[in-house]
Design brief:
The chain is an all-alpha fold. It is 71% helix and 1% strand.
Length: 426
């Protein structure tokens, strides 16, 4: 029993890295990396010691851990041809922190029996904490009557970055939706709906395009879920949920007429006059050119920030260079070649398909747990395609937590795993 509670403590300590205080430095992520390295070093030492003693349950290495381990080894090999050894080592150290974090999280879930409902309540508590720190300055803006001229960066909350804050909050929304679908008590349903309204209104105010796009996809996914699982109760809840989310999109327009045409944001994404869009497209084109020019090896892990100077020097402003490509998939391809791209993409989607598809029984899972998984990975996909969550512990750590949890769930249903064990067995 003590061993179980100690593993829960390890999991909570790793999770608390999301909320390390900023202190007197500008970049909160520096504290997060330092905190994660210290916590995981202690947890790894303990877990290895307990494993040698034989007191931990046997951990069958899941496919996802094998894939990311191979990717890490391939990244280490890229040091041999990297443009900068120092830059590669710094980024590899962060990759190693992720790897150790994932291993420790797999042990946490292997040693404990955490249900979908318990995990959902945990993420709901974190959701409330995060939106509180963003709503506090928003209420001050409204009370001062300066709402129409507000800067979205003021609402950045705990993450100190609007993009990170947006997706950190969004990744917790699927768990609220799960609780809403499965809760029988009406007063709790009302609480979950109220929290969803607060969450989606805040996401609108944070004004990030990736979130705007992903939220519209979320509506169609929920609608599809209600049609596939068609019965009166599920359909009614789905209509309430879709209406709530759509209504939340439009609440800010009642307070600010400039935000009334939400579709205009989607049109501007493809507009040639939009600076942010043109910048991202320029990065993507440079990344694709780099992959084509060196499809096997790439420029070395973490070295895109140096190689990008060659592609972006004519468009750069002063001494600003693109550290990230704003697309994790393309960046892995540019730094580690097509092998790196395929490995990262496989890690990204393997657990997703593994949980949703049972190839042994030719069955697709489509219950409320599958809906959570689909919504969660939809948000992650949009963030990975338009931002760079791999470089942001506050987002990527949540992905590792959920993947580790799903791996534990799959161990309870081995038939869902059989094809993938055959495909990736080594």
């Amino acid at each position: 029993m003590q061993k179980k509670y100690f593993q829960i403590l390890i999991g909570l300590l790793i999770l608390s890295a999301l909320y390390t205080p900023q202190g007197y430095i500008i970049d909160r992520e520096a504290w997060q990396w330092l905190y994660l390295s210290a916590i995981n070093l202690g947890a790894l030492t303990y877990n290895l010691y307990m494993t040698l003693k034989g007191t931990l349950k046997p951990l069958k290495t899941p496919i996802s851990f094998k894939i990311i381990s191979i990717l890490f080894i391939w990244a280490i090999a890229s040091i041999l041809y990297s443009l900068s050894f120092q830059v590669a080592v710094i980024d590899l150290s962060r990759f190693f922190i992720y790897l150790v974090s994932f291993y420790n999280l797999l042990i946490v879930f292997n040693e404990t029996e955490i249900s979908f409902k318990q995990l959902s309540y945990l993420f709901t508590v974190l959701f409330i904490i995060e939106i509180f720190f963003s709503y506090k300055p928003l209420f001050e803006i409204i009370s001062q009557g300066s709402f129409q001229n507000y800067d979205p960066n003021i609402l950045e909350g705990i993450a100190s970055n609007v993009n990170v804050t947006s997706f950190s909050i969004a990744l917790k929304v699927p768990f609220l939706i799960y609780l809403f679908y499965n809760e029988k008590r009406n007063f709790l349903k009302a609480i979950f709906i109220s929290l969803l309204i607060l969450g989606y209104v805040l996401l609108n105010f944070l004004d990030t395009r990736a979130i705007t796009l992903s939220n519209y996809f979320i509506l169609f996914i929920i609608l599809g879920f209600s049609l596939v699982n068609f019965n009166k109760r599920v359909f009614l809840k789905s209509i309430i949920l879709i209406s709530t989310i759509f209504f939340s999109f439009n609440i800010p327009s009642f307070l600010d007429s400039k935000r009334s045409e939400k579709n205009q944001e989607l049109i501007e994404i493809t507009s040639n006059s939009d600076e942010s869009t043109n910048q991202r497209l320029r990065y993507y084109k440079a990344g694709i050119k780099q992959i084509i020019s060196n499809p096997f090896l790439g420029v070395g892990f973490g070295n895109w920030k140096l190689e990008s100077i060659k592609y972006d020097k004519n468009a750069s402003i002063q001494y600003i260079v693109p550290y990230h490509m704003h697309n994790d998939f393309l960046q892995f391809g540019a730094e580690l070649g097509l092998i790196g791209l395929i490995l990262y993409l496989t890690f990204f989607v393997s657990i997703f398909f593994k949980y949703l598809i049972d190839l042994k029984n030719f069955k697709i899972r489509w219950d409320s747990k599958a809906l959570v998984t689909l919504l969660f990975f939809t948000y992650i996909f949009f963030d990975s395609s338009l931002n760079f969550p791999f470089a942001r512990p506050m987002v990527f750590l949540q992905l590792l937590i959920f993947i580790a949890f799903l791996e534990k769930q799959l161990n309870k249903h081995p038939s869902w795993n059989i094809f993938y064990h055959f495909l990736f067995y080594w």
